[in-house]
Design brief:
alpha/beta; eight-stranded mixed sheet; 24% strand
């Protein structure tokens, strides 16, 4: 679930959804669409996929920019000419996580749970060449739609697996990933089985000892889901930080929050600085303040897990 933010900057200028993929390594050609673009004839394209009606809407301000919608809910934005451009605020924050995961240009092993239009995989491939990336995405028709119209760079080391996010996670060996990014939504809600301590324990198993987990979460007043997710993550990871818009923190509207977790200390100061300097500035909480935010919320287990709350229709309106 994403809400369109202010135009973002590419990485050189400054720093969701459970749809799944096929194992096909091909990128798709997208030839017809690129030919249309050269003629200045870009038009929206659509296809019925597993999660509903997928649409790609051209960005009139960027010659090769597209926004992916599923049943009219914005999911991802891609600029084929500049994969470092991140339009949505939550994706910019996840971009900061990728930037801070290791020294600049160092390749990473990245596992993406949820694919969308592969925006963050494209970003990591562009900013960290030779990274090895795996995407676990449930909606194979959506993946093919994206491949057909927004082909991946054939040089990018990105593989897509067709599987449920938790099932796919279970197939990875211990200590494989430097970074696990979860951006998993079905019908604009995070599935229940991806909200539990058991799920996060499996995430920690797949991470390297110094690895990090980042998740796109969505909630609105009274933020009960978000508080529960922070409490659950704290039961598995000793180090946490949470970034969100100030109006989300205050419980004044539904929105996205990015949770960052690790077994080792996080670069909280730099993450905070980057989030605060975004076009739509956010706020980062950690330590005692984040513990207080949970308000004694219970740890979520598989037996008690529920999907994240459904967003109101207004959350998908562009500002």
């Amino acid at each position: 679930m994403a809400r369109r933010g202010a135009p973002a900057r590419g990485r050189n200028k400054a720093a969701g959804t459970d749809r799944a993929t096929g194992r096909n390594k091909g990128t798709g050609t997208g030839t017809g669409d690129r030919t249309q673009e050269r003629r200045g004839e870009r038009e929206p394209v659509s296809r019925q996929v597993g999660g509903g009606l997928a649409e790609l809407i051209p960005d009139r301000e960027r010659p090769h920019g597209w926004t992916l919608l599923i049943d009219r809910a914005p999911q991802s934005h891609v600029d084929l000419d500049d994969p470092t451009y991140l339009s949505f605020a939550y994706q910019r924050r996840l971009g900061h996580v990728i930037d801070l995961a290791a020294p600049a240009l160092q390749p990473l092993h990245v596992l993406h749970l949820g694919g969308g239009a592969f925006t963050l995989a494209r970003y990591a491939a562009a900013t960290r060449p030779r990274s090895t990336q795996q995407i676990v995405e449930l909606d194979a028709p959506l993946v093919q739609f994206v491949r057909d119209h927004l082909p991946l760079d054939p040089q990018a080391r990105v593989r897509v697996r067709a599987a449920d996010a938790r099932e796919g996670l279970g197939r990875f060996p211990d200590g494989w990933a430097d970074l696990v990014i979860a951006d998993v939504f079905g019908g604009a809600r995070t599935p229940a089985h991806l909200t539990s301590a058991e799920f996060l324990t499996e995430v920690r198993r797949v991470l390297k000892p110094e690895g990090r987990y980042a998740a796109n979460l969505a909630d609105g007043p009274p933020l009960a889901h978000l508080r529960g997710q922070v409490a659950t993550a704290a039961a598995v990871f000793p180090e946490l930080a949470l970034a969100a818009d100030p109006v989300v923190w205050r419980g004044r509207r539904f929105g996205n929050a990015v949770l960052l977790a690790s077994a080792l200390p996080l670069p909280v100061a730099e993450f905070t600085r980057r989030v605060a300097s975004d076009p739509h500035p956010g706020r980062v909480e950690h330590g005692r303040a984040l513990t207080d935010f949970t308000g004694g919320a219970a740890v979520v287990t598989d037996t008690a897990a529920r999907p994240s709350p459904a967003p109101p229709p207004s959350v998908f309106e562009n500002p």
